[in-house]
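Reviewers of the previous submission asked for a worked example of the structure-prediction workflow described in the proposal, so we include one complete record here. The input consisted solely of the amino acid sequence. No template or homolog information was supplied to the procedure at any stage.
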Amino acid sequence: MAPRYPVLSGYRMMWLYVMFDLPVGTRQERKAAAEFRNFLLDEGFEMAQFSVYLRFAESKEAAETYISHIGAARPDKGRVHIVTITDKQYGNARIFAGRKRERRPENPNQLALF
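From that input alone, the workflow returned the following structure tokens.
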């Protein structure tokens, strides 16, 4: 019997949006906010706007893993919202920069390790 490989589907692949509002009134709060932003970048997120980061996840299970990492790394103060949407839904995104419309980021290329 041939091995079963997961079917890549635009309905299973996910995009995660992390949106946050963190206090920056004290030096300690600014440090915590900067560390959280750096954590997101280290996890492979890209900045869409200053407090909005996004990342592609190859499955809902992978998205849940990222969500649990974010939950563990979030600062004690402030609010963090995480929204997941399917790749099909993300395909309908409209992105404008100034007066020009930008193309949405493409899914990352799949890597094969042998």
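The radius of gyration is 16 Å. We consider this example representative of the routine output the project will generate in years two and three.
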